[in-house]
Amino acid sequence: MKAIILAGGENRRFQSHKALAEIKGRRIIEATAELLTKHFTAVLISTNTPELFFYLGLPLIGDIVEQRGPISGIYSSFISTGAPELFFMACDMPFIKPEVIALIKKKFQGQDALLPMHKGLPQPLLGIYSQRLVPQLAERLRQNKKAMWDLLQDITVQFIPEEEVLRVDPEGKSFVNINTVEEYRNLVIHI
Predict the structure, then answer these.
(1) pTM (predicted TM-score)
(2) CATH number, domain at 127?
(3) CA distance 83 to 17
(4) Considering Cα of 97, then 88, then 147, then 120, what sign does the dihedral take?
C-alpha cells in the first residue's frame, strides 16, 4: 500500500507552509516521510506547491481540481496512482506514533474508509480510503463541497474505537496538529 502526505492546504492561518515547520530541529514533512517510508511501499506528497518539496525526492501529486482542500487531494491521489486503497496523513501532525500506523494497517480489511477515533471524533486526515469512493469524491468536488465531516456522513466508514487507539498511543500525541503560529509556538515550548 502507498501512503500520501496531504500537503496541499492553503495555510491561511500560518505564515509559511506548516509542513516545513521545524520540531526539534527537523522539518515535520521530513520526519513524516521517513516514518511512512518504513511502513508503506511508496510515499507521495499531494501538494499545490511542488517547488517546496522537490528537495525530498518523493513523487508529487497536484490537485486535478484547483484548491478544494483534502477531498481534492484524496481524489487526485486516486486518479494519479490508480491504487485500490491509499493511506492518507495530514502534513501537520508531527508526533505520529508508528504503532498507530500499524494499528490502522492491521484493521484495514477493504472497507471504504477506516479512521481512528480520538476525543470522541473521527480523524479524517489519518486513515485509509478506498478507490471505490472516487465517484462520490468527484461529485462532491463538482458541487464544491469541501468539508471532510460531510463526506464522512455520506460514506461507509469503519472507525477504530478510541480505546484501541489509546492502547498504542495513551497520550494521543499522534493526533496533535498545527493550525496556527500560536499553536506551533506553544508546541515548541512544551516539547
Answers:
(1) 0.92
(2) 3.90.550.10
(3) 27
(4) negative
